[in-house]
Amino acid sequence: MIEVAACGLFLLIFDAVLGSALWASLVLLEYPSCGGLVGMWAFGAIKWVFLHVFSMLLTDGKPQPVLRRLVGLLCLLPPVFESGCFLKASSEPYRGPSPNLTMLLLGPMASSLACLIWEKGLCGNGKMKKDSSKLDTRRLLMRTLKYFRPDTLYLIAAFGFLILGVICDTFIPLYQGNVIDMLSGKVLEAGFGYAVGQLVLVSLGSALFSGMRGGTFMCALARLNNRLKHLLFHTLLKQEVQFFDENNAGRLSSRLHSDVDRMGRTVALNANAVVRSTVKTFLMLGVMLRLSWELTVLTCIEMPLLAVVQNKYSALSKELKEQIQDCQAQNADLASQTISGIQTVRSFKAEKDELRRYQEALEQMRIAKRRSGIYSSVFLLLRRLVSLGIKILMLLQARTLISSGKLSIGSLLSFFLYQKPMSVNLKEILYCYGETVSTVGVISKVFSYLDRTPKCKEEGGLAPEKLQGRIVFKNVTFSYPDKPALKSVSMELQPGKMTALVGPSGSGKTTCVSLLKRLYEPQEGQILLDGEPLHLYKHKYFHQKVTLVSQNPVLFSGSLRYNIEYGLQDCSIEKVKKTANEIKANKIISDMENKYDTDVGEGGGRLSGGEKQCIAVIRALVRDPQVIILDEATSKLDAQAQHSVLKEILASGRTVLVVAHQLTTVQEADHIIFLENGVIVEEGTHSKLMAKEGRYYRLKEELFSQDS
Ligand SMILES: Nc1ncnc2c1ncn2[C@@H]1O[C@H](COP(=O)(O)OP(=O)(O)OP(=O)(O)O)[C@@H](O)[C@H]1O
Which UniProt keywords apply (predicted)? Predict the structure, then answer.
């Protein structure tokens, strides 16, 4: 920063030297002028070459953009100023620039001021610039626009209507001025009816095309939102389970709904508004310049002033908007967690605590919104003050023009009719710019999810007709992001045998099951199914052949049948009934009011724990699995039902893995593996384990039963 300032200072000094040299030579050679306007522009061009080379020397060939801008302004401002003087002095002969100290200082001062406003006002502060470059705003916006490709026809139609509407809009004030001028003259002038007809025609055109533009844009936007949400949801569904551990459901749902909506809305509506306002601005500027260039210049002065104010506001509001968005996601998450866990909340009488937590989250959002409200009102005040100041100057200038006969009342009225929408257009462009910049954060977050490559291995192609179901864990080591869970675990699950994984809470049993179901990938070691690594099997085939029934199975709201057939395309009701018969669950289902069409409620809330477990076992068995994992899956069934389930499961030579806390609950198991702190500490048959160090295990079991 200091280096840039120093280089800028040297450039200003060099510019002053060049300017002084020019004036000194003119004085010495007794020339009254430097060759008029042409001379000024030529001197500007020569000065640019010198200053540019000088700036290259100062910065080792890489002058910063701000220095380039300064050089440009130093060379451009004096000839532009002289050109303005030439145009203004059209009635008197133009004498050309004359040497004086004011002129020598004015150029460098105005250039430095313009650079300063540009750097501090229009480009925002250093932090914002850094952010913007990091997020690469333009790249993100262009990428968002690319998603509109399938809606090209809609967009062409929308922009077509937009331009037609804008053209009609632009001519309304002009025709209004014409009509008023005619009214103030001869009322029954022959062209009066024609002028009124023109006014009516452009007004109708404006209304019709604006309506069609809005409708077509909304259609394109709805289609984009649909596509983006579908794509994002698809990408999210492909992510590994660890991703969902790290990103809570509330935040993901907020990205999927509000962020995608906001992203499409901002880009589409802002593109619409910017194009509309830009075309309108240029058309209006042309008409306004024709009416009065003095008043037009005053109108244009408002723009950079408003830009500076708007820019500061955008930088501040961007930060706040992100904060409010995070608060919203957090609030939604908190409320949905409390509502879905209302039974737990009630049983612990934690309503007050939950209310307090929610109140605290709401309070955070209120503070952020209050700050946003204060910024917005200060911004509005400044904007109004700037507009008011300019308006007063314009009225003074208009009085002079009318009294000198350069402007008619009708033209002044037309001008004012243009001036208001003109500044609205400029404000709209600035607002869209600010809004787009503040949405860049949201867009980049959505894209970061869209671009995320799941950390899962690619799907294999194995789907053998015959599967034995032999599972081998080979030195498997696994850690969660913040915690090691399994250390070099090796075990074998035999087909037709029931293996039990026993151990205290947190010993790593569920982790083994999750790895076997490929919800996570081991960091070291391998898990083999019939000698092949799990990831080599086809995804769908693998999950049909290796099924899991957990202690608290997840059911979706819908009928029993829907839950049992979940994810299967060709499952007949006969097969479902047969499976239910085999595990003796037909009585449970036939007792229900609508049998297989009974609605289980949200999360299976209308069923008892045992009923849910029964449905989950049927759901697993209709898939004809070869490996079945029961993670305390029958803990809520009565002894007889448990026996029927185990008998059926073992009958067809399947590999069965049972997870339990206590040795006493896995007496039927052929092989027991005892896990502790993620390490296998003992294995063998039930009787062997009970006999071996019996006292040790009995003591442990007493401890576990107290835990559970
Ligand atoms: N998603 C997770 N993120 C981080 N750590 C986890 C996660 N799931 C489990 N852990 C940790 O990993 C270790 C093993 O957990 P695991 O659920 O496998 O134990 P477990 O034997 O099944 O316990 P329980 O019998 O209580 O179900 C524990 O210390 C647990 O805190």
Answer: ATP-binding, Coiled coil, Membrane, Nucleotide-binding, Peptide transport, Protein transport, Translocase, Transmembrane, Transmembrane helix, Transport
